[in-house]
Amino acid sequence: MRSGSEEPVPLHEEFIYCCGAATHVLKCGPWKDLSKDESKNLPRLLFMIIPGNPGLAGYYRTFIQALYRGLNQQYPVWVVSHAGHCKPPNGMEMIEDTDIKELEDVFGLNGQVEHKLNFLKKNVSKDIKLVLIAHSIGCYITLEMMKRASELQVLRSVLLFPTIERMAQSPQGKLMTPLLCKLRYALYMPVYLLSFLPEGVKASLVRFALRGMKSCDESSITTSINLFSVDCIANILYMASQEMMKVVERDSTTIKQNLKKLIFYYGTGDSWCPQNYYDEIKMDFPDGDIRLCEKGLRHAFVLDASKEMAAMITDWLQDDLTKL
Q1: Mean pLDDT of 165-177
Q2: Which entry of 136, 170, 219, 306 is annotated as an active-site residue?
Q3: Is 320 part of the annotated catalytic residue set?
Q4: In the annotation, is 136 catalytic?
Q5: Is 270 a catalytic residue?
Q6: Which of 8, 55, 163, 315 has the most other CB atoms within 10 Å of its CB?
Q7: What PANTHER family would the database entry show (predicted)?
Q8: Is pLDDT above 60 for 115?
């Protein structure tokens, strides 16, 4: 099914308001509008990426392009940023200037779930089937979407390095919870001061921070410059603080109800969802498609292993796609 072609693929970029918050959308393929039910040219399937945190669409640029190629350019592949995690272009505010407030606390964890459901409702025809590919906290969001909107035509949900339980108790969670829940405001002033640096200096700082990686994705470097924005960092850290408090018990009921649609992929050295979380869910759902990484991929795979991950997912879904 995979194509070996490395030719550039059609990539459309949009900044929109969704639930009143700035949202960055990247779309692979010629389909820019999937909302018109009457169109005869609508694809049967949309691959939609639900990001981790930071939920910046740009981190997934290489991933969606590789996935689109691997699918022989037959289906659209979109990634939707989390509300308020992107730096809006000049002339666009982080929050829409309107008297109508669509959603309380859109930047919180619950708000991000409703943000994705709202995006689908307004931008994707209800007749189009979905493959949801979620990463990290995006996996929690995806399970919540399936729970709250059972009418969604979800063919498959692929949950990569899923932070769906006991986040504050994980090795990384124990380290980060005090910082995120008590000290995050102390980070705003350094970020504010760094925001005045020239773009080239910011890029150099990002390269220095990622210097330990053998082959860091170039799009990750340009995307990381968003992290020098106080507004973006405030929304990112606020959401993360809620993750520590709210992602506690695994939603085994929703998993059981949708088990045949789910693929889980856990890491072996993942400090956000350690291997014992894999062992336990595997024991609780022996018939589930629950996999353990054998390639040593990091939790933040988008930094250096986007193409490898896209190739694996393409292989996993071949049987589903041939039945369409």
Answers
A1: 96
A2: 136
A3: no
A4: yes
A5: yes
A6: 55
A7: LIPASE (PTHR13390), LIPID DROPLET-ASSOCIATED HYDROLASE (PTHR13390:SF0)
A8: yes
